[in-house]
Amino acid sequence: MQRIADAAEISPEYAVIEVGPGRGALTGELAKRASKLIAVEVDPALADSLAEKHAADANVSVVEGDVLKISVEDILNRGGGGLPYVVVGNLPYFIGSPIVRKFLQAPIKPERLIVMLQSEVAERIAAVPGKMSYLSVEMQVMAETKLLFRIPARAFRPPPKVRSAVVRLDVRDSPDVEVDDMAAYLRVVAAGFAAPRKRLRNSLAVGLRIEAPEAAAVLADAGVDGDQRPQMLTLENWRDVYFAVKRQEQAHG
Questions:
Q1: What is the pLDDT of residues 156-181, one digit of tens each?
Q2: Rama region for 75: left / alpha / beta (φ>0; ψ in -120 to 50; rest)
Q3: What is the helix (H) or strand (E) element at residue 37, kind and residue range?
Q4: Quick one: which of 231, 199, 227, 228 has its CA closest to 129?
Q5: Which residues, listed in sequence order, are joined to residue 171 by a DSSP beta bridge?
Q6: Global pTM?
């Protein structure tokens, strides 16, 4: 918990949103460092217990609710926080990626996120070309990512059956690739990973619902080798593929 709190690099000007505080093991560490800590807990009993535990701490507020259903503005308003802010948390594994995505896509974005996730998810978020996935591209377009450290199962009671890791995402001021339509760019990336075990030209053909020779022509136009696997591509490679797909669509009316 100390290592996670330290990694957040909390200074006085930051509000901190803690997602999924549970029984408050990390909350106590964050409360020592944050001038304003807002803990968002979906379980009413845990939220009440946490609020009672920190009743004497003027810098701690507990917001009861589902973080995926409450806007960032509402979280900050209800918790008495402002900008800038950082997000810290031991995220529920089954909705970890959607929670990270929510903050990266929010109108009011955090400076950074330091979150514990299932190890495999954390590794995909911080992957390098050669091991990329759709999630890698989606997250890295919006943030600089780094896997900080892994956490053994014995650190938890009871020990979970999955491994955990902590990842840091420093949110970019603007996307890392220059495209005219980020949603369309990500749709092309998703199409490229439609059959990730296949060669890129075949995977892209599956995703775009076109014939392999047509996909090969798109990739040739983009200057990207269609014989490689999708996980080899960089964000910039996908940008080139996106614009090649767009040119093809324009050529076909």
A1: 677 767 889 999 999 999 999 999 99
A2: alpha
A3: strand 36-41
A4: 231
A5: 143
A6: 0.93
Residue 189 CA to residue 60 CA, distance in Å, equals 41
Cα separation, 231 vs 185, whole angstroms: 16
- Mention every residue, 6+ apart, whose C-beta is less than 8 A from residue 251: none
Query: What is the average pLDDT across 48-53?
Result: 96
Digit-coded pLDDT (tens) for 203-227? 999 999 999 999 999 999 999 999 9
Cα gap 27→194, rounded to integer Å: 40
Q: What is the CA radius of gyration of the chain?
A: 21
Residue 72: C-alpha distances to residues 59, 67, 132, 212 (Å): 18, 9, 29, 43
- pLDDT for 253 equals 64
Residue 133, C-beta contacts closer than 8 angstroms, at least 6 positions apart: 124, 127, 193, 196, 231
Chain centroid to Cα 206, Å, comes to 26
> What's the angle, vertex CA 171, arms to CA 115 and CA 31, rounded to 5?
45
Residue 70 has a CB neighbour count (10 Å cut-off) of: 16
Contact 88, 4 (CB under 8 A): yes
The phi-psi region of residue 24 (left if phi > 0; otherwise alpha if psi is between -120 and 50; otherwise beta) is: left
